[in-house]
Amino acid sequence: xxxxxxxxxxxxxxREKVLKKGLHITEKINRDYFYSLYFREPGGVLFEIATDxxxxxxxxxxxQLGSTLQLPDKYKPFKEEIEKVLPELKTEEE
Length: 94
What we know:
alpha+beta; 2,3-Dihydroxybiphenyl 1,2-Dioxygenase, domain 1; 21% helix
């Protein structure tokens, strides 16, 4: 189950609250477009808390979002391979 928060400050506030409950929670993980924390509740359900920032408009404008394949840094070396297996998408004009 995933939840979102406005920014890193709020994210880290939640991290402290989870720690105070005695649960294990990850360090802040940089996902390039947002930051995440992960923890499991006693029944085993995995929770993610992720930020809105920095957002998906970091490598293209809002108007261009979704017009080309953008990848997190760790996947950029594999962009050509990834593009080969993706289905072709048609535009509204087609």
